[in-house]
Amino acid sequence: MIRSLTFENYRGFPRFEMGNLGRVNLIVGTNNAGKTSVLEAIHILEAPGEISPIWATQTRRGEDIDDPDAARAGRQIDIRRLYHGHNIPIGNRLELTAQTDRGVDRFSLVIAESSPEARSPQPTLFDPTDTANDSDLLPRATALGVHWEHGQSGNDLSAVLELSRRGGVPLDSVRTLGRISESARVPIRFITAAALSAEVVIELFEEVVLTPLEDFVIEALRIIEPSIARIATSGAERRRTMSSRNINIRGGLLVRCEGIGDRIPIGSMGDGIWRLLGLALALAKTEGGILLIDEIDTGLHYSVMENMWRLVNQTAKRHRIQVFATTHSRDCYESLATVCRDTVSKNSEVTIQRVERGKAKATSYSEKEIVAAAERGMEVR
Predict the structure, then answer these.
(1) What is the percent of the chain where pLDDT is above 90?
(2) For labeling, which of 29, 105, 128, 351 is most exposed (least CB within 10 Å)?
């Protein structure tokens, strides 16, 4: 389990620390404080050998570029956007670190000059004060040194990637970086504010159908709609959903409710059901891992949030899942306080972490402090 986090030169944080982390951690703060950036950093850090979290994050944010002068055509991710100040002089370094129960996990990106003669660019670091690349185009052949350390010696992974003149990394240059041993990895899953895609939901559902986990998922949905009796995939609709490029489509699954003869397309049951379905499936399939949820209360009415938090808290404990979630909602945090009131432990299993712009350290609230703040009407967001 992650106990603390430290970021250096990452996005909006020149330096940032978050400590006293528990089993379930709710990250709060104003808009543009960096809450989602924290989730994205954990995803990058705890997926060693995987560039896909960076690619997904930057394309989701619109931080991809088209460089017509690049040797390889196609979209690229603008790696500058990961750095604080968006500056990448030679020698500039970004580092993410987690103190965990098994040791130290670390991820770093270093900007280096690559040799034009080298078949595969190799880093030769220059003076970190070199800022000759202030223009839109990098002044010389530049590479990106990528490095993961994961928990213990022998689980390190490094790669050097060529950057385009615009500071972009092409997709085809990051398809295969190698992986550390599966035994050293932990499962990790990210639910964005837009929820899981229909394709991912269907894939996860097919993994739990006709197992005890299917009953768990149905019980979770009954938090919102008690009459739900069964869920099933739909043949033709499933194929249409899986082949669609529309990420907002919510098809491929049918629901049967008690007292209603017709099967109901799950997309017709509202945002809350879809959100809770994705959350329940992610909890069911992330045993022993890390679950990241951006704006966890999206689509949920305040009246169901207490039961949602009970589901998350109990499942996280039972299946050894560490949860990091964000919210803007006072109802969301007060519902968590209600759950904490029933389960306060000596070593806090639930925390609230407040992120504030310009502050180098998150303010941490233990279970007892969360309960006290809610009872006194204190604002912790």
Answers:
(1) 39
(2) 128
Measure CA 290 to chain center.
9
Q: 312 Cβ partners below 8 Å, 6+ apart?
A: 24, 279, 283, 296, 323, 325
What is d(CA 339, CA 337) in angstroms, rounded to the nearest whole number? 5
Residues 6+ apart with CB under 8 A from 361: 16, 17, 18, 19
* Residues sharing a CB contact under 8 Å with residue 236, sequence separation 6 or more, in sequence order: none
Q: What is the mean pLDDT of residues 224-244?
A: 72
Q: What is the pLDDT of residue 151?
A: 72
Q: Say how many C-beta atoms besides its own lie within 10 A of residue 248's C-beta.
A: 10
Residue 23 or 267, more confident: 23
In contact, 288 and 320? CB cutoff 8 Å: yes
pLDDT exceeds cutoff 60 at 116: no
Nearest Cα residue to 184 out of 222, 232, 150: 150
